[in-house]
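Illustration 12: SDR family oxidoreductase.
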Amino acid sequence: MQDLEQKTVLITGGSKGIGFGIAESLLAAGMRVAITSRSQEAADEAASKLQKIGKGEVIGIAADVRNLESQENAVSKLIDQWGQLDVVIANAGIGHFASIENLTSEQWQETIDTNLTGVFYSIKAGLEGLKSTKGYFITISSLAGTNFFANGSAYNASKFGVTGFSQAVMLDLRKYGIKVSTIMPGSVATYFNDHQPSEADAWKIQIEDLGQMVVDLLRMNPRTLPSKIEVRPTMPPNA
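Figure caption equivalent — predicted structure in token form:
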């Protein structure tokens, strides 16, 4: 089993939701965690909450995944702080859901820029650091990355893209000893798309479940690679 103590990770969109849950689990495992948000205030507030876990170290960084230079700066800050980059988790994402008749070009562009191009920028910014450590690149896709639905044209396009991109990158980078996995959750109890989690979400995947999954991936023997993982609630209400 791989030891995670003192290893470093950059988590995009880590100030809430899935990214925050993953950060909690990795800190509890003793990792050094940098979370990003477009707002420094949000990044600092989340880092302060995470620091109370008390085992690993955490910093908050303002960064926009839609900008390559911003992602490169985030990686540089992490390496300046801790000297190495072991894991990049491309988690930041948004959702605009509307019929193609009503979906605006601005909503389309923001979805693709954040959910797909942002993943590309994340690995481009972190690649040399991951080569140095034979690290791990994890993307957060979605079941919407293989299952299409009405009003989902922009979101489906972005997540289908992330799924395919991740699998191709996995083939590109394994010669360097870099592992690549994509996690594809179904319904998760988060603040995504302005949702407010409540007791009614108890049937959904919880953020700590995905955090534990990431810990398990990172601890797995390097000879084995779960490259694409679909995750569903065990018992949805309409089952």
